[in-house]
Input
Amino acid sequence: MRQHPHLYEINLRVFLHRLGDGINPARLSDVPDEFWNNLRKEGMDMVWLMGIWRTCPEIIDQCCFEENLVQSYGKALKDWTREDVGGSPYAICDYVVSPDICTEEELVRLRNYLHKIGLQLILDFIPNHFSAGSEVILTNPEYFLEVSEDTFKSDPYTFYKPKFFDNRYFAHGRDPFFPGWTDTIQLNYFNAGTREFMTGRLRNIARYCDGVRCDMAMLNLNNVFHNTWRGIINEKVYTKPDADFWADAIREVKNEFADFIFIAESYWDLEWDLQQLGFDFTYDKKLLDRLKDGTPVSIRDHLKADPDYQNKSVRFIENHDEDRAISSLGRDKSFGAAIVISTVPGMRMFFDGQYTGKKIKLPVQLIREPKENVHKAVKEFYERLLVIADDKIFHEGEFYNVKIAPAWQDNSTHDHILAYGWGMNGSHAVVVVNYYGAPAQCRLRLNMEGTQENIVLRDALNDKTYTRSAEEIHTQGLYVELPAYQAHIFFY
Output
């Protein structure tokens, strides 16, 4: 795995439906080699196939037609039908590939082919819960968070009675800030047996892929689990463990699969904690929030964090949980944001449809998407950007922030500009983005060591070349003027 890798997420069920005949979806083995080869040519290092595990069909009618979900289906897909609702890919029966998608043998063949062309395979791990209809509830009910009948009656939305039992009650999985997910059952992470079981599932998954994206990974931290279920869990029977689940599980898996990659979906400023427990990468939702609603100054400050933290951060502007960047940011601002997440340290994540300007966020329960035209300007922009971001300097170079100064006295528009660089073997790449909705000017203090009287700056993003005085840059700084949300990527 190269440094600062590029990850491409595919909503697998939707993707295969798109490749199908209009009635029946394609299978994973039907995806042409050309598709995977093109991803590699575009600079991708990893492919995340989101939604490969088997779900429980009977849960769909029970849980997937609540009013808020039905409204979201109609908003995203005007002509949706019952057949378009496939249930949440995060409410799984068990870690068995869905027979509608592929067989284990087909998955292994794909992984081998991806390795042949230089791609790694990432799959889902959902540590917090299983489907409310999972057979694991019948075979091993002790792994789940069981409650009394009185607790169930006090809150029948958060708690439920599985079909397997007449008089046993359990908790639905949940985020402590939101109502329970009624299509799921909560695992009990204060039970040593549960931890051993889930670690075993991780070891088994590692036979088929190169890493996992761990859904809502912070929910299994001891303190978070305790605070979420305090008063519900019987702490006389299940006491808080000394170590967090992730520390033990990651160590055990990596003892057997040394290069296995752990990616954490993480929030609530717990990213650093998860990195210390062994995660190779953690989501950087804060950067996305600042790119959406923050100031350029707040983005610059964010990129001054400790290098170890930055290198393990997953940068993105859209994924299956987030609004499409074109819709949430607008086209021009999304271009500026895409330049940033593609050229700063860490893992750079892209979502299927991002390159073509898709605008509609699809609820994860839907397996069919609306038809959207390819946005020509967006496609051309990403074609240029991905070639640039694939350059060795953005993967093997050393990242540094560039000092930004006013272009002249009483001009404060320099605060709207982001600037940073990468150095490698005497060469430099400097990224300059006006992340504001009006023109901005500044002067940049660039590293001029070893340069001649004049310096030639090649702007790879705009296919232009500039010759400037090295002395002027050294004494005053490189003068830059950019329209709203425009950028330079200089090589020199």
In short: The domain at 6-395 is CATH 3.20.20.80 (TIM Barrel). DSSP finds 19 helices and 24 strands in the chain. The radius of gyration is 24 Å.
